[in-house]
Amino acid sequence: MATGVWLAGGRGSVAVTSIVGATAIKAGLADPTGCVTELEQLRSPALPALTDLVFGGHDPASTRLCKKAEALADAGVVPARLVAALTDELAAVEPEIRPVPAAATQLETAALIAEDIAAFRFRHGLERVVVVNVSSTEPAAAAHPAHADADALRQALGEPGTVLPASSLYAYAAFTSGCSYVDFTPSTGARLPALDSLAHRHAVPYAGHDGKTGETLVKSVLAPMFAMRHLRVRTWSGTNLLGGGDGANLADPGANAAKATSKQRVLGETLGYEPQGNTRIEYVDDIGDFKTAWDLITFSGFLGTSMRMEFTWHGCDSALAAPLVLDLARLTAAAHKSGRTGPLTELAFFFKDPLGAVLGPATSDPRSEAARTDEAGSAQDPARAERAPAGTVPHALAEQWALLASFVRGLADA
Ligand SMILES: NC(=O)c1ccc[n+]([C@@H]2O[C@H](COP(=O)([O-])OP(=O)(O)OC[C@H]3O[C@@H](n4cnc5c(N)ncnc54)[C@H](O)[C@@H]3O)[C@@H](O)[C@H]2O)c1
Prior knowledge:
The chain is α/β, with parallel strands linked by helices. Helix content is 42%, strand content 17%. It binds nicotinamide-adenine-dinucleotide (NAD).
């Protein structure tokens, strides 16, 4: 099942690490560590194979893929020996990462984006294409009345001016050309009523938002622990230091605010209340793609005794993100094939700010009492997520995992 992965931001760190990784796995030079769809419990014949993925994309940058891959190798993100061994394969992908089209109206620009994707699909005989947004984070989009309705949106896009941010224009182009869409960034993407109805109209699924690869991943494991042990989290503050293109872009206050909001959401929704404190993101050029997060948590226990916890996370951002991009492309393509349309809320496992209504904290669900009083290993109730009303999403990682596993089983049965 040859499946296209069209990367908006195709010359960025996450995109190029994804391309290098998939190409290395295909050539038998690397194993798929980090790809959760290669785990025993999630492996499924319903998914396109990693070796079936074909890459293309858009990017305004002109850095050649092999140069970007070499820069990632110099920075210790990918092994230099792989980049050297994959020169021909990367050269073959090079012409498939196209400049971003521009036209007099956004409707015409969307048509040009769709044309590039259609030509890519035809050239490679692809069964379907998943558009994945891994481009620079945008500031929150300005509201526009046409965001509420698909027909009004089409009309407004035909006028000069900016109606949609770039991330949403990619979603528009994807949906209208019958492609699914994944937003790996905190940008607006498909999160507009007009785009949701367009996805349903064109019978395509979409997933998002904002890949969960570092501090928030740790939060989504630790916050349920405090909740399940009935410990009161009084404050939770985090500082994230990162460099690279993403870090430089997040130095912009608008993009920074969009990211910080999406990183803090897990706490309120897992604990059932908002502890004091917030998440800061700071650009440190010298650390490149390696991110450091320091978190301080203060909490109260029995009889109000004060305690604290601190953790430090040193992660390589693109190495953590790239395997998830490959997982998401495979899962979304399989969902599309099985006839799913609209938001794929079961993919919440991958995201900081997942699509879907919030499933309240496990401690407020009387049906999960048995699991809470069970042994420590089952302190979270994975089955709760499967019982929950369609479209609701938990924020605890174990519950998200259970939802994902049942989604994959469902794809195989479809
Ligand atoms: N790395 C992670 O762990 C992680 C986790 C969650 C989210 N993300 C998000 O993934 C995105 C990519 O991260 P990165 O580290 O690769 O950043 P990067 O800066 O290396 O790459 C972004 C790329 O997007 C391109 N771009 C900018 N505007 C564009 C447009 N209109 N159309 C197409 N391309 C455009 C840039 O030229 C650049 O090549 C960011 O939004 C980041 O917040 C990354």
